[in-house]
């Protein structure tokens, strides 16, 4: 079996960069930075049951 | 740089436990970093569920508990070991999780449910068909990808594309004829709902065994392992018993219900990731009829790190990567060259699973496993239609040079 270590590193860095870029532009990050933000964590009761079921 | 793993004969400790140090270290580093970031930036239940999903990823990798190969084996040879593992999973979900979702044990959880209509029927059929071309189901895609399977990366990417397209058209499908969602515990009560689902699981168990005996002459067991290896070694190197993996997945789903308020799901995460990329490149996602609904709209503007489905999907990928590293089996299933017809099947399979998963309200996990855990009738309808689609998919596999 062969694999490229660079491919693993590249894929990991790309994955991590995308996650962090998304997080830095999110409502939760804004909330944590004291800039307001309608984070989903404040409205968990409203959105419970979302996900893979039918949209309400 | 291409690494030839196991290029030189192992010695000493490496002989007993030939770990892939690079993959193991890398997987551990990302798990630790993500756990820290999720803990610092979000909420306790999310980093706990991330780690729970890592364990589920390890369990799926070491047991091979999945749906696609098991369905194919049952159709082609009659061997029903994998089907029994799934029934064990569903039976335990019905028995253990339904009380928490129904409110008999009040944890403030909501069910995973969906209307019974054309959207569900078509979506489930398409998903089942796509499974056989893509080579895995929703959860299978994640843990196979984590174990370094190159073909699965193609399926995964197009799964995301298909899920996004499906989400953009989901409200059109929802407007087609249907009857409202049926939660068995609402009409029968929790005890009867559990009993009815267990009876159905038992009937299927009997029928699968009967067909297996007819086609193979005997019933294979296979849910438990008969290994002489020490437990510590098997925990790290595998294999794990299918029954053990089923128990771990049920406990993981139960924790998901208790901590997040909903059963486990996967395909919404794929749609969300696709929507975020599409939005980034200028597609007007936010005004789409699906993406303006409460949960979807909030998820779109918020971090993937506060989306339970996303966090758990990442956990499963990384858990499988860690397990593959520890067992020195990372990328072990990759052929020297991937034929273009196989890649085309991965593209089509991924697209169909993504699209079908959205309009059919989930995959084997979100629709079937969590649907049964919610005592929702749509789960059993999904099972039947996805199996029918899978049957057709099995017949089509040879067109793409895929072995049956």
Question: What does the secondary structure layout of this molecule look like, with pairings?
Answer:
The complex is a heterodimer of chains A (56) and B (404).
Chain A: E1 2-4, H1 5-24, H2 27-32, H3 44-47
Chain B: E1 2-4, H1 13-16, H2 21-41, H3 44-63, H4 68-76, H5 81-102, E2 116-117, H6 118-134, H7 138-146, H8 150-174, E3 178-179, H9 184-188, H10 190-216, H11 231-237, H12 242-260, H13 267-280, H14 294-301, H15 308-326, H16 340-359, H17 364-373, H18 377-396
Antiparallel strand pairs in B: 2-3
Helix pairs in contact in B: 2-3, 2-15, 3-7, 3-12, 3-15, 4-18, 5-10, 5-12, 5-17, 6-16, 6-18, 7-8, 7-15, 8-13, 8-16, 13-15, 17-18
What is this entry, summarized?
The complex is a heterodimer of chains A (56) and B (404). By secondary structure, chain A is mainly alpha-helical.
Shape of chain A: flat
Radius of gyration of chain A (Å): 17 Å
Give the SSE string of chain A.
Answer: EHHH
Strand content of chain B: under 5%
Description:
The complex is a heterodimer of chains A (56) and B (404). Chain A has 56 residues and is mainly alpha-helical. Chain A is 54% helix and 5% strand. The longest helix of chain A has 20 residues, at 5-24. The N and C termini of chain A lie far apart (47 Å). The model of chain A has no long low-confidence stretch (mean pLDDT 86). Chain B is mostly helical and 404 residues long. Helices cover 68% and strands 2% of the residues of chain B. Chain B has a two-stranded antiparallel ribbon. Chain B is globular. The interface between A and B is large, with 37 and 66 residues. β1 (2-4) of chain A pairs antiparallel with β1 of chain B, so a sheet runs across the interface.
């Amino acid at each position: 079996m062969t694999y490229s270590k660079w491919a693993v590193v590249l894929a990991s860095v790309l994955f991590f960069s995308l996650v962090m870029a998304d997080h830095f532009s999110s409502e939760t990050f804004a909330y944590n930075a004291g800039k307001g933000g309608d984070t989903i964590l404040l409205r968990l009761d409203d959105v419970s049951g979302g996900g893979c079921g039918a949209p309400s | 740089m291409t690494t030839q793993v196991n290029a030189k004969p192992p010695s000493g400790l490496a002989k007993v436990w030939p770990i892939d140090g690079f993959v193991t270290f890398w997987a551990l580093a990302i798990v630790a970093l993500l756990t820290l970031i999720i803990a610092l930036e979000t909420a306790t239940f999310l980093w706990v569920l991330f780690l729970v999903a890592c364990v589920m990823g390890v369990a799926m990798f070491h047991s091979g508990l999945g749906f696609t190969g098991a369905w194919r084996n049952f159709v082609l040879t009659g061997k029903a070991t994998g089907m029994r593992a799934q029934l064990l999973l569903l039976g335990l979900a019905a028995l253990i999780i339904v009380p928490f979702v129904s409110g008999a044990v009040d944890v403030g959880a909501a069910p995973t449910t969906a209307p019974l209509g054309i959207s569900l029927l078509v979506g489930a059929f398409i998903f089942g068909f796509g499974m056989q071309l893509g080579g895995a189901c929703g959860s299978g895609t994640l843990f196979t990808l984590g174990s370094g399977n190159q073909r699965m990366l193609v399926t995964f990417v197009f799964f995301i594309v298909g899920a996004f397209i499906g989400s953009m058209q989901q409200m059109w499908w929802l407007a087609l004829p249907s009857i409202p969602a049926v939660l068995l515990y609402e009409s029968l009560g929790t005890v009867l709902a559990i009993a009815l689902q267990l009876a159905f699981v038992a009937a299927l168990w009997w029928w699968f065994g009967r067909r297996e005996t007819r086609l193979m002459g005997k019933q294979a067991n296979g849910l438990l392992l008969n290994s002489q290896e020490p437990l510590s070694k098997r925990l790290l190197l595998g294999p794990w018993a299918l029954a053990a993996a089923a128990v771990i997945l049920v406990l993981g789903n139960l924790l998901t219900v208790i901590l997040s308020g909903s059963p486990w799901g996967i395909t919404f995460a794929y749609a969300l990731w696709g929507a975020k990329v599409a939005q980034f490149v200028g597609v007007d996602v936010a005004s789409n009829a699906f993406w303006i609904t409460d949960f979807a709209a909030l998820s779109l503007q918020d971090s993937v790190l506060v989306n339970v489905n996303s966090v758990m999907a990442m956990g499963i990928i990384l858990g499988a990567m860690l397990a593959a590293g520890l067992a020195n089996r990372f990328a072990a299933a990759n052929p020297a060259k991937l034929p273009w017809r196989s890649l085309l099947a991965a593209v089509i399979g991924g697209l169909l699973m993504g699209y079908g998963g959205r309009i059919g309200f989930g995959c084997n996990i979100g629709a079937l496993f969590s649907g049964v855990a919610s005592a929702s009738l749509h789960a059993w309808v999904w099972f039947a239609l996805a199996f029918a689609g899978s049957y057709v998919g099995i017949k089509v596999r040879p067109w793409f040079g895929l072995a049956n």
